[in-house]
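Async update (no meeting this week)

Hi team, since we skipped the sync, here's where things stand on the single-chain job. The sequence we agreed to prioritize is pasted below, unchanged from the tracker. I ran it this morning and attached the output directly underneath so nobody has to dig for it. Comments welcome in thread, and please keep replies under the output.
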Amino acid sequence: MTLIAVLAVLLVVNLLNHRWRSHWYLRTCVIGSLVLLAIGRASGFSWTQMGLGRSAILSGIVWGIASIAIVVAVYLIGLRIPRTRGFFVDDRLGGRTGFAVARHALVEVPLGTVLLEETAFRGVLFADLVIATDTTTAVIVSSLIFGVWHVLPAMAWHESNAGIAETLGERHARARWLVVALSVAGTAAAGVVFCLLLLGSNSLLAPMAFHWAVNGLGLFFVWWLRRR
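Output:
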């Protein structure tokens, strides 16, 4: 029942964010996160089982800082290589000011995307799967569902990212679905990494930090490249 309840909440949130009420994004993610935590607690999960135990806070912070450093290094290398620099050109930022980008990266990403997805996939869902199956199965299944979660946002990614469009073709139906397939595979793989960070640190703080670094710092690097 917990799995069904979590998937139902995620379906509604995904449709609200990408089809019905995208301008409600932040409030939808925060409320969705609270609902998911309530489901977890009602199912009998402890805060520790959901990666929110007090004893692992320090471990989560240490792992999180190390994760952010790795992401920064990878982004800096990617910007230095001409072949990969094009993937940092994203038209969705348009003519946004530095303040707007900062607000997105420092407010909407951590309190929206990261909070919801980590609470759902590495928190409540992962705890439920570990109890129902085993750790390996929980990593695989939660990561696959995490990949499928990104189908709707991936549909718009092809048309807004110059590097993707140049590599796979512009506005071509087959290229668009290839982007979706690659996005699902890529985010599923990222889900595995997030799960490993959770298991290594016993804290959601580690995958949250890594997740924010990939998304939030990515925005700063994209904006910086556009300014240049």
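Quick observations from my side:
The two ends are 51 Å apart (CA to CA).
The chain has a mean pLDDT of 88.
Reply here if anything looks off.
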